[in-house]
Design goal:
Layout: H1 6-11, H2 17-26, H3 30-39, E1 42-43, E2 58-59, E3 65-70, H4 79-91, E4 96-99, H5 107-116, E5 120-123, H6 125-133, H7 144-155, E6 159-162, H8 168-177, H9 186-198, H10 203-206, H11 208-218, E7 221-224, H12 239-257, E8 262-266, H13 272-285, E9 291-294, H14 306-319, E10 324-326, H15 339-360, H16 367-378, H17 381-387, H18 391-400, H19 417-425
Parallel strand pairs: 3-4, 3-10, 4-5, 5-6, 6-7, 7-8, 8-9, 9-10
Antiparallel strand pairs: 1-2
Helix pairs in contact: 2-3, 4-15, 6-7, 7-11, 8-12, 13-14, 14-15, 16-17, 17-18
Length: 434
C-alpha cells in the first residue's frame, strides 16, 4: 500500500521506518506509536526530502521535546554565528531547530541547515515571504504566500508554523475585547497587518485546503500558530486567545481529514495558577493534538532571566500535558541571542522537559537521576560529570576550587555528609584534623 504521510500510513495499518525509530528511542511498542500517529495524538515531523533526519515523536506518552530558535536578521546577518548555534543545539540534544531567518535570501542558510541537521527543522514561511517574493507586504497577493510554503516544503522542512486561526472573526474579537500587549506573535502581526491593509481574509485560512495539499505531498507537519497568544500575564486566558484556540481545533480536524500531521502552538506569558487549566483546555478543544508552547513565561519583570521564567512555566505546562517546549534565552525581549544565550536557553529548556517527564511518569525518565544520586553517594565525581546535562560546566565548577581531599567538595570538605555516612557505615572512624 502506498502512503504519503506518517498519519496516512498509520491509518492504513502500516508501520513506517520512522515509527520504528521513534519506538526504539522511546522504548515503547511500535504498534502504540502507529495507533497514536493515526489518531493524531503523536506527530512524527519527517519531510521526505530531509535526508539527514533522525526522526522524533512528539505527543501522547512520549518524552517532552525541545526546540531551538535561530536564524539571521537584518541587524545580525552572519551565517557563521548561526551555525555555531546549530552545532550547540545538536550537541546538547535539541530535537528541533526552527530557522526564523527574515532577511535576504534565507534558503542558503536553510539548505545547509537541512543537510547538516539530524534534528527536525521548522520554519515560519510568513517571515520569509517579503524576501522570497521581493515585494512589500501590502503588495503580496494571497496565493503568493502558498509559493513560499511550497518552496520550504521542497527544501525539506519538517514542520511549519502557519497562522491560519487569525481570521476576520478572531480579529473582530481581538478589537472588541482589548488587550494590554495586543498582538505579540511576529507572524501573527504580519498576517494581521496584511489583512487590515488589503481588506482581505487571512490567506492561510482562506486557502487552507490548498496549503494542506502542499504539506501532504511532502509530509510536512503543520504547526498551527497562535497569533493571539498572550504577550503578558495580563492577557493570559483572554477571550481572543481562547477564540483562536477554538478555531485551531476546527483546523486540526480538517488537517487530519487530509492526513496531514498537526501540532498546536500555545502561550506565551501566563501566571502559574492558569497553566494547568490552559493545557487541559487545549487538549480538549484540539482533540488531543500535540501541544507546542513558548514558555509560558510566568512573570513579565525578568528581562535578562527569561530562560528561567520560561523554564518554570515550561515544566508546569509539560507536566500538565504540553508535549514540545520552545526554548527561551536570557536575551528574550532584548536582542538576538548570542552563543552563550543559546546555551543557557537550551539547558534551561532541557531541565524543564526532563523535570516534566519525571512528573508525567514517562518510562525510565528517573533512571538517570537515580544513577546521579548513586554516584553522589559514592562521591564518584567523574561519573557525576558524565551524567550531568552540562558535563563541562559541572566539571569546571568543581575544578575551579578543588577540595584538599577528592572524596568531598570545597563546600563541606571533610564534613561532607556523604563522606561521613559512608565511613560510619563502613565501620571507619570519622576524623577532622588537618
Amino acid at each position: 500500500m502506498n502512503y504519503s504521510t506518517q498519519m496516512e500510513a498509520g491509518k492504513l495499518g502500516i508501520i513506517t521506518p520512522e515509527m520504528k525509530i521513534v519506538a526504539e528511542k522511546e522504548n515503547i511498542d511500535v504498534e502504540i506509536i502507529r495507533n497514536r500517529v493515526a489518531k493524531g495524538t503523536i506527530a512524527i515531523p519527517a519531510n521526505k526530502n530531509h535526508k539527514s533526519l533522525s526522526p522524533e515523536g512528539i505527543g501522547e506518552g512520549l518524552k517532552t521535546k525541545i526546540n531551538v530558535n535561530l536564524g539571521v536578521s537584518g541587524d545580525c546577518a552572519d551565517y557563521t554565528d548561526e551555525f555555531e548555534k546549530v552545532n550547540l543545539a545538536l550537541k546538547f540534544g535539541a530535537e528541533a531547530i526552527m530557522d526564523l531567518s527574515n532577511y535576504g535570501k534565507t534558503n542558503t542558510f536553510r539548505t545547509q541547515l537541512l543537510e547538516k541537521s539530524h534534528a527536525m527543522v521548522g520554519t515560519v514561511p510568513m517571515y520569509d515571504a517579503i524576501g522570497y517574493l521581493e515585494k512589500d507586504l501590502k503588495k503580496i497577493k494571497a496565493k503568493d504566500f502558498l509559493k513560499v510554503i511550497e518552496a520550504h516544503a521542497k527544501e525539506g522542512v519538517d514542520f511549519m508554523t502557519i497562522h491560519a486561526g487569525i481570521n476576520r472573526h478572531a480579529i473582530s474579537n481581538f478589537k472588541q475585547t482589548k488587550r494590554m500587549t495586543n498582538i505579540v506573535s511576529r507572524g501573527g502581526s504580519l498576517v494581521f497587518a496584511w489583512m487590515e491593509m488589503t481588506g482581505n481574509e487571512n490567506p492561510f485560512y482562506e486557502f487552507y485546503d490548498e496549503i494542506l495539499d502542499i504539506l501532504y505531498k511532502y509530509d510536512v507537519t503543520i504547526s498551527l500558530g497562535d497569533a493571539l497568544r498572550p504577550g503578558s500575564i495580563y492577557d493570559a486566558s483572554h477571550a481572543a486567545q481562547i477564540s483562536e484556540l477554538i478555531e485551531l481545533g476546527h483546523l486540526t480536524k480538517r488537517a487530519w481529514e487530509k492526513n496531514v500531521q498537526v501540532m498546536v502552538e500555545g502561550p506565551g506569558h501566563m501566571a502559574i495558577n492558569e497553566i494547568a487549566a490552559n493545557m487541559v483546555l487545549q487538549k480538549r478543544l484540539c482533540h488531543g493534538a500535540p501541544f507546542y508552547v513558548l514558555g509560558p513565561l510566568v512573570t513579565d519583570i525578568a528581562p535578562g532571566y527569561d530562560h528561567i521564567t520560561s523554564a518554570i512555566g515550561g515544566a508546569i505546562a509539560a507536566a500538565n500535558g504540553a508535549d514540545f517546549l520552545c526554548y527561551v534565552t536570557p536575551a528574550e525581549h532584548l536582542r538576538l541571542p548570542d552563543i552563550s544565550d543559546v546555551k543557557e536557553g537550551i539547558i534551561a529548556s532541557k531541565i524543564a522537559a526532563h523535570a516534566a517527564d519525571i512528573a508525567k511518569g514517562i518510562p525510565n525518565a528517573r533512571d538517570i537521576d537515580n544513577k546521579m544520586s548513586d554516584a553522589r553517594r559514592r562521591i564518584d565525581w567523574e561519573e557525576m560529570f558524565k551524567l550531568a546535562i552540562d558535563p563541562e560546566k559541572s566539571k569546571s565548577y568543581f575544578e575551579s576550587k578543588p577540595p584538599a581531599e577528592r572524596h568531598s567538595c570545597s563546600m563541606c570538605g571533610k564534613m561532607c555528609a556523604m563522606r561521613t555516612t559512608n565511613k560510619i557505615l563502613n565501620n571507619e572512624t570519622v576524623e577532622f584534623e588537618n
